């Protein structure tokens, strides 16, 4: 219904706007090719860290050219997403709405009958001109950005609105894709067409890739709503987009990098495709050696390779290269905090956690928890030097939590739950909170690239184990604490290839299921890790059984959806393994 109404109401506004446009804007109207060239110049400025210059170069024509409008509002959206400041969000929203209007003017006017007919026949956009095709694409892009911004607003209504926006955007992309498939060869040779094709690759690719990561029960619902989530197809579209020489190649590239370097690590099996990421980044890193984005991704690749020293240098270079967008510094602080945590250099890690607490607004609860957790790893006299009060920090966490779309953020909820142990007058200390958080972000996979550092972490865990064993007055959290340590030990041992010992640790945690009072997340997560261990040993059937058990038998524990993402990812890899077996085995 929403779709039909949308179609029916479109023509009128479109016509009005076109009239206004024709009366007032003729002189400023640009042909498509010039607009694309100017946007390319702005993009060049942007990648050279000249963010304000890029914005002001697009500003004069933003009401008359869809590409200027789209570029302008995209930069503002990025800024808003980075600062999280309500004022910036309002500015971005206003400019996205204006950009929608600008794009709308260039779209084909359709009558009611025409749009109903096209709705039934599923081929709404017959024989559009090149400019009209670009208008569809830009419209879909801006619509997607507007929906993304709507999601950040804090109510349930905006969540639904965001969802509808995403859906409309996706449908237009699908139409664009259909147009691209039937278009004649002559058309394809136009200079501007390559940019259309690149845009379709980017949009369709991103939608498919992101949806393919969703756990199956969500994915099924999304597919019911008309989305498709085919990972391989999404990747191939993005690769094609990245390889094309179009305005949006960089966006396809950045999406692929995001996928390999973040999403696969945090929500997947932890094995991003690093060689591909390096190859994708190289041309841009060569062309923009001081570009903040390039330095950042170069450093991130080094982190995932276990080359922390090099990564630290590059993150510092990324901070030094520009001052305009402070938020990029914050991303670097976050990464530096982890890079030093992997080395167990807690003093340095604390420094960056503290910077985040002081400067960034994304998730104060996480930062304060993280800072307190890191301080808990330091000896008392070191903590005294910093002048911080660890207990007071933990007590702040709960009050700092955010709500997005009426829901709390899982990591914040997790942190707040852990921090509760500091609420009573006589706090019951957490054992190895910083290492536990490292697991939450899948850090053991990363540090596993460096056996000597993994050994170091293992020693820390063994010391904690010893301390718990000799505890004269075990608290109600004793079993939970022992199990946290055993699970983390199992992870280190797995990384070190000591699989038999690792399995003992994991089985210990699973056997204590009935005695674990608070950290109920431990059992399903440990079961998942045990499944990965069986997979590593080559015992795929046991792996699948154990992981399915983790998926089916547990509910309502911390970070449940994160585990479901990881389970979905790993079952996918094993599914494809099975498919390759000869038929007689299956
Ligand atoms: C679209 O163009 C083709 C060939 O250029 C033509 O045969 C067809 O009738 C056109 N369709 C519409 C709806 O105008
Ligand atoms: C880290 O990466 C840099 C640059 O790629 C390289 O020169 C250096 O040898 C690497 N160091 C280690 C320990 O791998
Ligand atoms: C921690 O890192 C800093 C900066 O790289 C270095 O100076 C210091 O020696 C390191 N400390 C430890 C204990 O490794």
Topology:
Elements: H1 2-24, H2 32-47, H3 51-58, H4 66-83, H5 86-106, H6 112-121, H7 130-152, H8 156-182, H9 185-188, H10 193-212, H11 216-224, H12 231-243, H13 249-266, H14 274-287, H15 292-305, H16 308-321, H17 326-342, H18 346-359, H19 364-376, H20 380-386, H21 390-396, E1 403-404, E2 407-408, H22 410-419, H23 433-440, H24 443-447, H25 451-469, H26 478-495, H27 499-511, H28 522-537, H29 540-552, H30 560-580
Antiparallel strand pairs: 1-2
Helix pairs in contact: 1-5, 1-6, 2-3, 2-4, 3-4, 4-5, 4-7, 5-7, 7-8, 7-10, 8-10, 10-12, 10-13, 12-13, 13-14, 14-15, 15-16, 15-17, 16-17, 17-18, 18-19, 19-21, 19-22, 25-26, 26-27, 26-28, 27-28, 28-29, 28-30, 29-30
The protein binds 2-acetamido-2-deoxy-beta-D-glucopyranose (NAG) (3 copies).
One 2-acetamido-2-deoxy-beta-D-glucopyranose (NAG) binds at residues 345, 348.
Q: Tell me about the biggest sheet?
A: 2 strands, antiparallel
Give the assembly state of these chains: single chain
The share of residues in helices is over 70%
Which secondary-structure class do the elements indicate?
mainly alpha
Apparent shape:
globular
Distance between the amino and carboxyl termini: 45 Å
InterPro entries: IML2/TPR_39 (IPR019412), TPR-like_helical_dom_sf (IPR011990)
Protein name: Tetratricopeptide repeat protein 39B
Family: Belongs to the TTC39 family.
Organism: Poecilia formosa
């Amino acid at each position: 219904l929403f779709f039909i109404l949308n179609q029916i109401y479109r023509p009128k506004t479109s016509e009005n706007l076109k009239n206004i446009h024709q009366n007032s804007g003729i002189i400023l109207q640009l042909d498509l090719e010039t607009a694309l060239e100017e946007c390319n110049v702005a993009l060049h400025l942007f990648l050279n860290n000249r963010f304000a210059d890029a914005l002001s170069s697009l500003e004069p024509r933003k009401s008359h050219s869809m590409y200027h409008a789209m570029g302008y509002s995209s930069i503002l959206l990025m800024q808003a997403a980075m600062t999280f400041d309500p004022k910036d969000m309002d500015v971005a929203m206003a400019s996205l709405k204006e950009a929608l209007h600008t794009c709308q003017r260039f779209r084909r006017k359709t009558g009611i009958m025409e749009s109903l007919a096209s709705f039934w026949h599923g081929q709404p956009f017959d024989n559009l001109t090149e400019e009209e095709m670009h208008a569809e694409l830009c419209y879909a892009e801006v619509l997607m950005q507007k929906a993304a911004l709507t999601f950040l607003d804090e109510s349930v209504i905006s969540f639904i609105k965001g969802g509808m926006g995403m859906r409309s955007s996706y449908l237009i992309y699908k139409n664009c894709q259909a147009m691209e498939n039937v278009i004649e060869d002559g058309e394809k040779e136009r200079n501007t067409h390559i940019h259309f094709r690149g845009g379709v690759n980017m949009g369709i690719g991103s939608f498919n890739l992101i949806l393919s990561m969703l756990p199956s029960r969500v994915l099924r619902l999304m597919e019911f709503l008309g989305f498709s989530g085919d990972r391989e197809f999404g990747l191939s579209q993005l690769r094609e987009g990245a390889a094309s020489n179009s305005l949006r190649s960089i966006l396809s590239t950045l999406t692929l990098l995001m996928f390999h370097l973040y999403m696969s690590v945090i929500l997947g099996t932890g094995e991003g495709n690093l060689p591909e990421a390096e190859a994708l980044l190289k041309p841009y890193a060569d062309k923009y050696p001081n570009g903040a984005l390039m330095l950042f991704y170069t450093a991130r690749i080094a982190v995932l390779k276990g080359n922390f020293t090099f990564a630290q240098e590059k993150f510092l270079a990324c901070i030094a290269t520009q001052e305009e967008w402070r938020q990029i510094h914050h991303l670097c602080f976050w990464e530096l905090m982890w890079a030093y945590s992997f080395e167990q250099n807690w003093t340095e890690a604390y420094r960056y956690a503290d910077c985040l607490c002081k400067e960034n607004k994304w998730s104060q609860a996480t930062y304060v928890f993280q800072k307190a957790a890191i301080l808990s790893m330091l000896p008392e006299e070191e903590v005294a030097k910093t002048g911080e009060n660890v207990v007071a920090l933990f007590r702040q966490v709960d009050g700092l939590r955010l709500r997005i779309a009426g829901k709390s953020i899982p990591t914040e909820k997790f942190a707040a739950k852990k921090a509760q142990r500091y609420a009573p007058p006589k706090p019951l200390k957490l054992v190895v909170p910083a290492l536990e958080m490292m697991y939450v972000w899948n850090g053991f996979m990363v540090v596993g690239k460096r056996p000597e550092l993994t050994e170091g972490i293992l020693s820390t865990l063994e010391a904690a184990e010893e301390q718990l064993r000799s505890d004269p007055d075990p608290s109600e959290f004793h079993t939970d604490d022992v199990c946290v340590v055993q699970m983390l030990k199992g992870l280190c041992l797995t990384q070190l290839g000591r699989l038999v010992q690792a399995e003992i640790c994991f089985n210990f945690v699973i056997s204590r299921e009935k005695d674990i009072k608070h950290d109920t997340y431990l059992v399903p997560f440990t079961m998942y890790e045990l499944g990965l261990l069986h997979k590593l040993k080559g015992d795929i059937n046991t792996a699948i059984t154990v992981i399915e058990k983790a998926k089916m038998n547990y509910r309502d524990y911390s970070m449940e959806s994160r585990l479901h993402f990881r389970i979905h990812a790993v079952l996918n890899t094993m599914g494809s393994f099975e498919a390759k077996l000869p038929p007689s085995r299956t």
